[in-house]
Amino acid sequence: VATAAVGAPRRGWLALSGLLAGLAFAVSMKSSPLLITQLLALAMLALFWRLQGRAIAWRTWLSALPGWLLGLILPLGAFAVFFALHDALPQAWYFTVTYNIVPGLGDWSSGPVHFLLFPAVLALVALVAWRRLRDSTDPVLTLRRMVPFAGGALYLGALFSFWPLLTLQDLLPVMPLLLLGITGARMGARKRVTAGFIVAFVLELALILAARPPWCDHLLHRQERDLAMVLKLTRPGDYVLDAKGEAIFRPRPVFWVFEDIARYRIAHGLLHPHVRAALIRTGTPMMLDYRMPDGDAHFIRTNYIPVLGDLRVLGQRLSASAVDTKLHLSIAISQEYVLVSPQGEVHGARLDGAPLTGPVRLARGHYTLLIPRAGRYALVWAPAMARGLRTAELFSR
User: Fold this and answer.
1) Is the domain of 173 the same as that of 256?
2) Collapsing DSSP states into helix, strand and coil, what is residue 66?
3) Highest mean pLDDT, choosing among 3-12, 20-29, 361-370
4) Cβ distance 360 to 338 under 8 Å?
5) Which positions, given as ranges, span the membrane (predicted)?
6) Range of 244's domain?
7) Sign (positive or negative) of CA dihedral 194, 197, 201, 203
8) Distance between CA 160 and CA 115 in Å, rounded?
9) C-beta atoms surrounding 9 within 10 Å
10) Would you list the DSSP string of 248-274?
11) Number of domains in the chain
């Protein structure tokens, strides 16, 4: 947007603008509302420019249009060719477009009131643009500033009116666009207004530093801590279940990631990720219990022990109330297990009548466990204990 505003109507600048737009589309389809609202803003500003008696070099603009379109199409064409060569073009279309269109999703099910926001923003932007162009002593410079400002404001209105799932990151593209327009306001003669903007800026900066100081990122610290634990307890071939691939160095047992659209589809029976079956099939020994499907919550709590943050390790907590307590175990995931207590590995236990000494591989099924002493115990994935998982972490929560 800024490239087009600065360089238009020169062909090279517009071709570069089209190329950048095409790259944005290739990265995310969320670029579509930004492009649509920017084109709407351009049409509105062109209309105002003519109504105020100024000429438009139509031939120059039309001669530059093919270059812009070519720049726009090139990345999208490369994207399509790449997936077509890998026989995955239908899948690319599905996950880029079709998958994201779900009736009743987010704001699409909240009624018609929010649809009125966009016309209101459009009217306000039109009023500001008309007055700024009419009163400007340098209309060309004002027009260049109003292009990103009007497009950004309309993009913001379109998001709140029509976009089904709004996140804070969706607002990032609009901030520099609005600032480019605001900087063109003639506030120099209005000292009170200028002082008000300065005070607002200082207050906002103070709030940002107080709430999210860049030198102390608690979220990043938790992510690093969890990932360090995953790397410590697992090896590259071990499966780890997470929501969106947070355990980036380990394979996931399921294909689907559990973002908002997937969770909506799962909740309404439109998507069946078969998490339980995948955990059983792959013998997944570790997981991050975050954004998991509600239907699998009981299975996860029964077969995975919380150890740190959202991290869970394969196993079950057990409790013996007396000497030589018999417990009936149900093993859902075939893996290598070891019996431990808060004091360490347990000796003297018997599994189906045979001595239980050290790690043992258990197939899926039912077992009888005889525990010699009363207390708290855990039957846990044995490699985790061998790689440094402390018993205190198993029994602390």
Assistant:
1) no
2) helix
3) 361-370
4) yes
5) 12-29, 35-51, 63-85, 113-133, 145-165, 196-215
6) 218-299
7) positive
8) 8
9) 18
10) TTS--SSS----HHHHHHHHTTS----
11) 4
Residue 308 lies in a domain: no
Mean pLDDT, the chain, whole residue set: 87
In a domain, 306, yes or no: no
pLDDT digits (tens, 9 = 90+) for 94-105: 988 888 888 777
Same domain, residue pair 82 and 161: yes
Which three-class secondary structure state does DSSP give residue 156? helix
The whole-model pTM stands at: 0.79
Q: Do you know the residue count of the chain?
A: 397
Structure tokens at 318: 């057990």
Query: Which of 94, 39, 40 has its CA nearest to residue 68?
Result: 39
- Residue 254 amino acid letter: V
Structure confidence by residue, pLDDT tens digits, 137-146? 888 888 888 8
Count of other CB atoms within 10 angstroms of residue 46: 15
In whole angstroms, give the CA distance from residue 325 to residue 348: 12
* Same domain, yes or no: 253 and 344: no
Cα angle 385-388-389, degrees, rounded to a multiple of 5: 60
Tokens read off for 23 = 């790259």
Give me the residues paired with residue 335 across strands. Answer: 362
Position 311 in a domain: no
Query: Which tokens belong to 281?
Result: 């099939």
Asked whether residue 118 is assigned to any structural domain, the reply reads yes
> Which pair of structure tokens corresponds to residue 262?
């997937």
CA pair distance 299, 17, nearest whole angstrom: 51
b vs e for 179-207, b when ≥16 Cβ sit within 10 Å of the residue's Cβ?
A: ebbeebeeeeeeeeeeeeeeeeeeeeeee
Contact 305, 394 (CB under 8 A): yes
25 shares its domain with 142: yes
Residue type (1 letter), 179: L
Query: Which residue from 66, 84, 74, 65 is spatially nearest to 21, judged by alpha carbons?
Result: 74
> Quick check: 278 and 305 in contact, CB under 8 A?
no
Token readout for 237 is 């071939």
Q: How far is CA 302 from CA 287, 296, 339, in A?
A: 13, 10, 16
Q: What is the mean pLDDT of residues 51-68?
A: 86
Nearest to 364 by CA among 337, 327, 326, 394: 337
User: Is there a single domain that holds both residue 259 and residue 279?
Assistant: yes
Q: Which two tokens stand for residue 269?
A: 């029976």
Final residue of a domain: which of 134, 163, 185?
Answer: 185
Question: What is the C-alpha separation between 358 and 340, in angstroms, rounded?
Answer: 9
Specify whether 52 is located in the same domain as 199. no
Check if the beta carbon of residue 165 is closer than 8 Å to that of residue 33: no
